[in-house]
């Protein structure tokens, strides 16, 4: 929304797609409240319209605040289904709001410094009030921008922690499977070389009652020794890391 002010006139100009065309239901209450001061010049009408425009910023700030709160809850409660695009869109909206507030604040600074010859001294006080509201909204936008940055860091940190936990669990599982495989590898080799038929041929058909239990006992002893050696090596490796 642009304003063109002169000594005896005020023109509002708006582009397509913005709230440029005043709705009677919106602007009439504003003009009624400003009736006592409207007769003092276009600068007071400018103040009434700018005050209305700045007040609508409060609704946008409130929506952003609600969205920030909902985003924080979503990250904490349901991290797996949360999408990073939500933070990106929210940050983009905050930056757009901040950019709008920044330029509006610069214009109001010029008005409050009496840079415009069409704004009388009596109206400066009213514009300063609008400037205070605008500064407050700008500071809130700055705070929300920092909050979004902290949310992004928190989200990435939580995702990395979850990935690390998953990787640790995978490593533990792989270690267990490796231990089982290492223990059974020599036993599988013995069982493959000395199968039932070969073992009977070596020991003789009449000795199977002794040979098979002895072979099974030998395999159990070999497996236990292999496990003990691996367990000792694992303890030594952990002690070096610590």
Provide a descriptive summary of the structure in words.
By secondary structure, the chain is mostly helical. It folds into two domains: 2-166, Methane Monooxygenase Hydroxylase, Chain G, domain 1 (Up-down Bundle), CATH 1.20.58; 172-241. The protein is 80% helix and 3% strand. It contains seven helices and two strands. It has helices spanning 24-33, 35-38, 42-77, 84-112, 121-193, 196-203, 208-241, and strands at residues 2-5, 10-13. Strands 1-2 form a two-stranded antiparallel ribbon. Helix 3 runs antiparallel to helix 4 (84-112). The longest helix has 73 residues, at 121-193. It is rod-shaped. It starts with a strand and ends with a helix. The mean pLDDT is 80.
Q: Which tags fit this structure?
A:
about 240 residues; mainly alpha; Methane Monooxygenase Hydroxylase, Chain G, domain 1; 2 domains
